Amino acid sequence: MTVIPGEARLGQWRAVMQGEALTLSPGWQAVAQASVTALETRLATGEALYGVNTGFGKLAGTRIGPAQLAQLQLNLLRSHAAGTGPLLPAPVVRLVLGLKAASLARGASAIRPAVIEALLALLAADILPAIPARGSVGASGDLAPLAHMALLLIGEGEAFQGERILRGPEALSAAGLAPFALGPKEGLALLNGTQVSTALALAGLFAAEDLLRTALVAGAMSVDAARGSDTPFDARIHALRGQPGQIRVAAALRDLLAGSQIRESHREGDPRVQDPYSLRCQPQVAGACLDLLAQAAAVLEREANAVTDNPLVIDGEVLSGGNFHAEPVAFAADTMALALAELGTISERRIALLTDPVLSGLPAFLVRDGGVNSGFMIAQVTAAALTAENRALAVPRSTDSIPTSANQEDHVSMATGAALRLHDMADNLAGILSIELLAAAQGLEFHRPLQSAASIEAAHGLVRGAAAAWDADRAMAPDIAAVKALVERGRFADLVEIA
User: Where does the record place it (predicted)?
Assistant: First the structure.
């Protein structure tokens, strides 16, 4: 796949994350080299250039002599590789490499084409730098994690290739590379930028988009299991409000429920005038979440194409600015966290509804011979625990700035942590939706021989392919894990389109 630096679409980044090869469109090398030449010209004048012949952060006022410029860049990578915690997962590291290469290739960072080509070579060989997940506050760029990425280029640090852990020189050799001696600004250009925050946020976005579609399938299945109404999804209702996400979700729910025999069986004579909100207000809640994700997607697409290191070489000038400040990413991550939390909250309420015989009209806890059997009693408790955890994780991170670098960097975005927590939230939501899918599939079976709509029956088939019907109590955890694996592979998400 060929990407035009500065013009890549989110679908292309999703493909890179999933392992597709990345090349950059022709002509980028000349653009990148021009910025290197421009920097060399300015450096020859003897003027102070931040991070090129000065120290970093609070040490920006310290001039560095010509004989120490290479050591300055080398020391920068070593000193800033101060991350901790578990390593970033392979899909995220693929994104980091691709995003960094594309950003540097735009020709404002004064880094040689050969260094950019080395990042692409690592990606092509699937040799991925070992990057600790924690240690960035999302301003001055993702310094610590990107320093761990860049260490590999000088033959230090570690990488992984599949399950193999490789030391720096071995990793470079496996990719057909030799260690680099960094030129002026190259170390700074490599570790300054928002690529780790953006990669984490993109991974969260892609997971959230799939989980939202899964939530619509689970929610529609719950409507039929509870003999709910499809009237709340009537297009005329949503047109009067005009919220685009709401309109799109209502249309998707109508499509999912179209042709259901269960719905037709109680269209007349049902004593319930209105369903509980967790069934009836799905377009309003999931639609608002869809709009949040769309807004975040637009921000992240721009950020993925951005140049975010400092200083920048523009029109022959070396300009110091603050593009490394990841506030847009932090806000996008915080809003996605709200969507993930709310999708889980309303799903858990539907699970509670299905297990409550007063609300659902189904056997208590979705099992016959209740008392001897507890059925879905504790599965609902698990869903409640995951929901509570996601509510806590949804607290905004972008408002929690802590000054760093002796108050030179006195306002930071916390974007990296904001995006990192999306992984745990998506995992929790996948668990909640798995429980709802199991409960709703069980509920449908109490209405047999009536059939639901085609897509819902397909979802039921996926559930039953992973977990048998609940006739008597058994360990629930394996069933949840089996359905969750399908959720994470996008099998339920594939059953619905959001136009």
Answer: Cytoplasm
